[in-house]
């Protein structure tokens, strides 16, 4: 049994009063035997009023630079771009707020998880750990795991943390209900990091005469959608929290207990964010003093107060805001003195050292993710004459971008149909000042997932065959709207047009399906089951796993069997799950294994590579014609033809 030495982090002493046992760092192993803490009062002695500050973010999703578009981002000049976020500007504001608050008591800097996956930087996170390195350089003391932090598998998660640790720049990762103790080869990296004290179930920061006990949780809904976790298991967050509070309060003698909760917020019947796992956590475990929330991408401009004493806060997403929570402690009484979301925008001059590090990471991203397919991270691809929005609640406004993407998927594989859903489109293409869309901008439209034949970032394209009746059933599923996330599942297609009427009974709203396009014309196909003719459909692997799970999601009401071109069922397996989708702001797949014969590949220079979703979109943009003399880049069409309505609503 080895003692894990305390580490110094930006002048903040991290201490532990006891040897950290293996069961403590291999999270979740003792949750079942936890005992609830009676009462919820802090252990602070009555020594008068004291103040501390928590600066916090959540759901950064690898947004190291501002993007609107990325070529507009100018972090060293003021008032000349509309970009929100960017680590260079975030670093400046963190430093300024820490300096402003340091004489009023301790300052902690915390993150609520999902620090990775979402931009091109995540494509090389296993090689660089860039997100964690920069969090450390900005002074962050701790973060936790979100569901997307496992997108590249538990071994990928470990590689990213190890890369940051090797560079000597890594914040503490606290994961209290994450159990990676199983004897699986993919977990050896996380197990090693736990032994080294880089991933812990809890830890204590002592500063200014106060002991801050921190722990981190992955909420129940987020657990459903942690598809890349593999052999990692997750304990009940409430029971884990009770155990952590007991340990931190009674053994570690913590004065303040802070939960990093990747659980999420939910709206009440009046449309206000007053509920959700981030709120229900301190209700069930009143010994928690502060909850730094995450997962639902919710901008809370005021804390949600639980039990009259525990603030729950969240900052939104993508580093667009920095939260500043100031708390006073007067004897046993905890009070929120102030709370503010600071916008990260071009009123802030960026930090040059952070920008230099980001430029260094860009070179690795190009080498790891893009060079083999003929691209580089800042390469211009096309110009958009106006914003191409992905607005779930405004189907018409997002039609041009959806059509562009599905046309690209169909072009890449020559399938009859290219298919996606609104929730799979992760970013807008914003015009900004120049309209220039780079590889960085386009990758952010389709950044999720990893490969099958190769493990580089980005979902591969898969193709399966369906009857006309199965196409109707597929559409029926995606037309079921979720009131918590309206429009997220709305189906988008190329090579197919359909009509629907929501006044009809559920699972029978689609009245007609046609295949074809504007050039060849459309023809209606049989959707009654009398014609067994097959139609090929291409989508991302991420969406393919959802599609294959439709029969289980609908309890057999919508039977669908993905097939190969010979009509034989694909050998795929999807685990049965309910679909809570309450706080999750992402359309995410269930755990699954996929038949490799459905994976689309291309041969270039003698090498066979799978076709990535992002690659298909980039290839399509690069293939658009340059129409006007003197133009260097093609212009993305935004005319009436580009806005073709392929989902025709009755009335």
Q: Report the structural category.
A: alpha/beta
Task: Report on the biggest sheet.
Answer: 8 strands, mixed
Query: What's the tally of helices?
Result: 16
> What percent strand?
15-25%
What does this structure look like?
This protein has 651 residues and is an alpha/beta fold. Helix 4 (130-137) crosses helix 5, helix 5 runs parallel beside helix 6 (188-195) and helix 11 crosses helix 16 (613-622). 24% of the residues lie in helices and 23% in strands. A hairpin with a 5-residue loop joins strand 13 and strand 14 (273-275). The strands form 10 sheets. An 8-stranded mixed β-sheet has the order 1-2-9-10-12-15-17-16. The chain has a 4-stranded mixed β-sheet with strand order 4-3-18-19, with helices on one face. The chain has a 4-stranded mixed β-sheet with strand order 23-28-21-24.
Mind sketching the topology for me?
Elements: E1 8-9, E2 12-15, H1 22-25, E3 49-57, H2 87-101, E4 107-111, H3 125-128, H4 130-137, E5 142-143, H5 153-166, E6 172-174, E7 178-179, H6 188-195, E8 199-200, E9 202-207, E10 210-218, H7 220-224, E11 233-234, H8 237-251, E12 256-262, E13 266-267, E14 273-275, H9 277-284, E15 290-293, E16 304-306, E17 310-313, E18 321-330, E19 333-343, H10 352-370, E20 380-383, H11 399-413, E21 417-421, E22 436-438, H12 439-443, E23 461-467, H13 468-478, E24 491-494, E25 496-500, E26 510-517, E27 521-524, E28 534-540, H14 541-548, H15 550-553, E29 573-574, E30 592-593, E31 601-604, E32 607-610, H16 613-622, E33 647-649
Parallel strand pairs: 3-4, 5-6, 6-8, 10-12, 12-15, 15-17, 21-28, 25-33
Antiparallel strand pairs: 1-2, 2-9, 3-18, 7-11, 9-10, 13-14, 16-17, 18-19, 20-22, 21-24, 23-28, 25-26, 26-27, 29-30, 31-32
């Amino acid at each position: 049994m080895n003692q894990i030495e305390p580490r110094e982090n930006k002048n903040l002493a991290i201490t532990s009063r006891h040897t950290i046992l293996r069961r403590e760092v291999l999270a979740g192993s003792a949750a079942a035997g936890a005992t609830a803490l009676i009462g919820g009062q802090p252990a602070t002695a009555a020594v008068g009023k004291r103040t501390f500050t928590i600066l916090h973010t959540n759901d950064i999703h690898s947004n190291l630079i501002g993007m609107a578009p990325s070529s507009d981002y100018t972090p060293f000049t003021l008032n000349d771009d509309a970009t929100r976020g960017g680590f260079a500007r975030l670093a400046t504001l963190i430093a300024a707020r820490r300096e402003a608050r340091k004489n009023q008591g301790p300052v902690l800097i915390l993150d609520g998880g999902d620090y990775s996956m979402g931009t091109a930087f995540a494509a090389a996170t296993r090689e660089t750990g860039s997100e964690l390195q920069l969090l450390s350089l900005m002074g962050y003391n701790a973060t936790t795991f979100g569901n997307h932090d496992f997108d590249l598998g538990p071994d990928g998660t470990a590689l990213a943390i190890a890369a940051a640790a090797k560079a000597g720049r890594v914040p503490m990762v606290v994961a209290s209900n994450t159990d990676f103790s199983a004897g699986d080869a993919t977990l050896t990296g996380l197990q090693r990091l736990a032994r080294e004290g880089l991933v812990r179930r809890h830890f204590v920061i002592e500063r200014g005469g106060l002991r801050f006990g921190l722990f981190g949780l992955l909420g129940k809904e987020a657990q459903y959608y942690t598809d890349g976790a593999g052999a990692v298991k997750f304990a009940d967050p409430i029971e884990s929290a009770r155990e952590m509070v007991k340990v931190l309060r009674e053994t570690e003698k913590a004065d303040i207990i802070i939960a990093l909760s990747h659980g999420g917020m939910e709206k009440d019947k009046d449309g206000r964010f007053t509920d959700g796992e981030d709120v229900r956590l301190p209700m069930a475990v009143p010994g928690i003093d502060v909850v730094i929330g995450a997962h639902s991408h919710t901008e809370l401009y005021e804390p949600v107060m639980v039990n009259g004493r525990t603030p729950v806060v969240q900052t939104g997403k993508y580093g667009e805001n920095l939260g500043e929570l100031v708390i006073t402690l007067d004897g046993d009484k905890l009070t929120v003195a102030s709370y503010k979301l600071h916008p990260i925008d071009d009123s802030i001059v960026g930090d040059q050292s952070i920008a230099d590090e980001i430029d260094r990471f860009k070179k690795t991203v190009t080498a790891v993710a893009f060079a083999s397919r003929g691209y580089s991270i800042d390469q211009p691809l096309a110009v958009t004459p106006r914003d191409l929005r992905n607005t779930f609640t405004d189907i018409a406004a997002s039609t041009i971008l959806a059509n562009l993407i599905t046309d690209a998927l169909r072009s890449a594989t020559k399938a009859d149909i290219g298919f996606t859903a609104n929730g799979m489109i992760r970013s807008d293409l914003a015009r900004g000042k120049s309209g220039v869309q780079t590889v960085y901008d386009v990758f952010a439209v389709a950044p999720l997932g990893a490969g099958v034949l190769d493990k580089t970032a980005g979902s591969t394209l898969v193709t399966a065959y369906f009857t006309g009746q199965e196409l109707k059933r597929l559409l029926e599923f995606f037309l079921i709207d979720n009131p918590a996330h309206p429009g997220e599942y709305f189906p988008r297609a190329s090579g197919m047009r359909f009509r629907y009427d929501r006044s009809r009974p559920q699972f029978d709203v689609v009245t007609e399906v046609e295949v074809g396009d504007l050039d060849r014309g459309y023809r209606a196909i049989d959707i009654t089951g009398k014609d067994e003719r097959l139609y090929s459909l291409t989508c991302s692997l991420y969406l393919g796993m959802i599609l294959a799970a439709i029969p289980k999601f609908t309890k057999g009401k919508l039977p669908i069997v993905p097939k190969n071109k010979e009509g034989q069922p694909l050998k795929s397996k999807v685990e049965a799950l309910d679909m809570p989708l309450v706080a999750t702001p992402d359309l995410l797949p269930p755990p699954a294994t996929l038949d490799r014969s459905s994976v689309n590949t291309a041969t270039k220079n003698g090498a066979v590579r799978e076709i990535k979703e992002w690659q298909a979109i980039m290839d399509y943009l690069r293939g658009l014609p340059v129409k006007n003399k003197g133009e260097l880049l093609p212009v993305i069409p935004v005319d009436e033809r580009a806005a073709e309505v392929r989902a025709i609503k009755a009335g």
